[in-house]
Amino acid sequence: MKVEFAPINIPLKRRIQTVAVLQWIFSFLLLAEFCCGFFVILILGNFWFLAVLYLLWLYLDWETPCAGGRRSQWVRGWTVWKYFREYFPIHLIKTSELNPNHNYLLGFHPHGVLVAGAFGNFCTDPPFKNLFPGLTPYLHIMPIWFGCPFFREYIMSAGMVSASKESVSHVLSNKGGGHASVIVIGGAEESLNAHPGSLTLNILKRKGFIKMALKHGAHLVPVFSFGENELFKQVANPKGSWLRNVQEKLQKIMGFALPLFHARGVFQYSFGLIPYRQPIHTVVGSPIPVKQNLNPTTEEIDELHALYLQKLKKLFEEHKSNYGIPAHKSLIFE
């Protein structure tokens, strides 16, 4: 394989952007393991009492990820996130007003490999708060991450909360509105489809978010992130292949998927784990009004689910030509 090296005279700003993304990759892939390892070292070392104190704190604070988390405007406003967003760059596109007197459930599509668009738009300031003043976004992620010592504090500071039913219910129960639950509908399973050009969404059997919206009267908002699947290449894993079978079995056991992805490096463009510089345009659609129904029937859930799919497809079709999607390509629902 011929290695393509980066030019020496690259502007300093672009170097800083690359470092910012490298930091984000480390946070996603290795920081949780590093924090767990550090915690074990504390237990086995001379500072075991610090580990005991933290365990006490963990016990007392265990429900916080399901009760709105503990965000830090300071962390969300770090300068490093500005360079992170500029690297791709990441853009948030507003198509309709969202009245802050309501609560909303935003369905984010597609998952991609590492959900860069969701993080950049909903976990860093100021993109979302500038476009939708009065609304506070909460990005729901797998509960397993909130069991990692120290790491849980970091991700909560960015505005991430658990994806459990209790957590979503807490966010959407805010009296007076002003809350926006952001759920990556396809989940970890969809990351296995995150190949460049892929438009396949795992959504046909995912109706839990519809039921939550009905129970709380939260307006549904489809969100499509153009470019999300273009950031990485993935080892070929068609359905039925031995690799895909192994990945799906591991996902069922561990709760999260393991896509074998690659892209570029720091000083060369041929291999590595840093995403490609591909623009991400996250388009926030118009809200679907939802009337509260504490005990929705299966038929009512199916009806609203079908309407959501219709609005999501319409959002994609209306904007795909702006972001390089050929006219003959459409979303595939699985």
From TrEMBL:
<keyword id="KW-0812">Transmembrane</keyword>
<comment type="similarity">
    <text>Belongs to the diacylglycerol acyltransferase family.</text>
</comment>
<feature type="transmembrane region" description="Helical">
    <location>
        <begin position="21"/>
        <end position="41"/>
    </location>
</feature>
<dbReference type="GO" id="GO:0005789">
    <property type="term" value="C:endoplasmic reticulum membrane"/>
</dbReference>
<keyword id="KW-0319">Glycerol metabolism</keyword>
<dbReference type="GO" id="GO:0003846">
    <property type="term" value="F:2-acylglycerol O-acyltransferase activity"/>
</dbReference>
<comment type="pathway">
    <text>Lipid metabolism.</text>
</comment>
<keyword id="KW-0012">Acyltransferase</keyword>
<dbReference type="GO" id="GO:0006071">
    <property type="term" value="P:glycerol metabolic process"/>
</dbReference>
<keyword id="KW-0472">Membrane</keyword>
<dbReference type="GO" id="GO:0004144">
    <property type="term" value="F:diacylglycerol O-acyltransferase activity"/>
</dbReference>
<keyword id="KW-0444">Lipid biosynthesis</keyword>
<keyword id="KW-1133">Transmembrane helix</keyword>
<dbReference type="GO" id="GO:0006651">
    <property type="term" value="P:diacylglycerol biosynthetic process"/>
</dbReference>
<dbReference type="GO" id="GO:0019432">
    <property type="term" value="P:triglyceride biosynthetic process"/>
</dbReference>
<keyword id="KW-0443">Lipid metabolism</keyword>
<comment type="pathway">
    <text>Glycerolipid metabolism; triacylglycerol biosynthesis.</text>
</comment>
<keyword id="KW-0256">Endoplasmic reticulum</keyword>
<keyword id="KW-0808">Transferase</keyword>
<keyword id="KW-0325">Glycoprotein</keyword>
<dbReference type="Pfam" id="PF03982">
    <property type="entry name" value="DAGAT"/>
</dbReference>
<protein>
    <recommendedName>
        <fullName>Acyltransferase</fullName>
        <ecNumber>2.3.1.-</ecNumber>
    </recommendedName>
</protein>
<dbReference type="InterPro" id="IPR007130">
    <property type="entry name" value="DAGAT"/>
</dbReference>
